[in-house]
């Protein structure tokens, strides 16, 4: 199935942010915006909700901390108790480095795995690049064209009146 998009090419991030606000205020749904670098405030302007990834990071870190403490307490206190340097079997202050490291490790892996699952990213995924200049110095706004619903000429005029230096059409295989 092929999808058709109208691409507005911008060369200034401030013009892009203003264009996004104006186009969304007019009721046009923006498919996505591609940028060569992160643009401060673009998520708010596009209406993208805050990520819940920090919640996942917290619970993955909590799991890592619990696992580290359980592992060390079990090993040093019950499975193979040894007195090292005169410390008691369960010496929590000496467990802090390993606990910290496993907290960070579980948190990092938990976020990466969750991100890949939620984004449906996999090694065999084919990525459609709308315009190669979006990886270098241009900003690309993609608006999906729905057959019979979208007036392409009016959309071209809308993008140009909102600062697009170039307007293109692109068909993408989905």
UniProtKB/TrEMBL annotation:
The chain crosses the membrane at residues 55-75, 95-118. The keyword Lipid biosynthesis does not apply. InterPro entries: ActD. Pfam families: ActD. Keywords: Membrane, Transmembrane, Transmembrane helix. It comes from the Bacteria. The keyword Transmembrane helix applies. This is Quinol:cytochrome c oxidoreductase membrane protein. It comes from Pontibacter chinhatensis.
């Amino acid at each position: 199935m092929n999808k058709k998009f109208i691409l507005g090419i911008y060369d200034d991030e401030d013009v892009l942010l203003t264009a996004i606000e104006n186009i969304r205020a007019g009721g046009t749904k923006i498919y996505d915006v591609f940028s060569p670098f992160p643009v401060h405030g673009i998520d708010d302007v596009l209406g993208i909700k805050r990520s819940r990834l920090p919640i996942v990071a917290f619970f993955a870190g909590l799991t890592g901390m619990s696992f580290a403490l359980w592992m060390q307490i079990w090993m040093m206190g019950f499975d193979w108790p040894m007195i090292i340097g005169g410390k008691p079997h369960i010496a929590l202050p000496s467990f802090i480095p390993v606990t910290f490291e496993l907290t960070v490790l579980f948190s990092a892996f938990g976020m990466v795995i969750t991100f890949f699952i939620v984004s449906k990213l996999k090694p065999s995924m084919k990525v459609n690049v709308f315009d190669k200049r979006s990886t270098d110095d241009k900003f690309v706004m993609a608006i999906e064209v729905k057959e019979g619903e979208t007036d392409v000429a009016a959309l071209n005029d809308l993008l140009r009146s909102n600062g697009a230096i170039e307007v293109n059409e692109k068909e993408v295989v989905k």
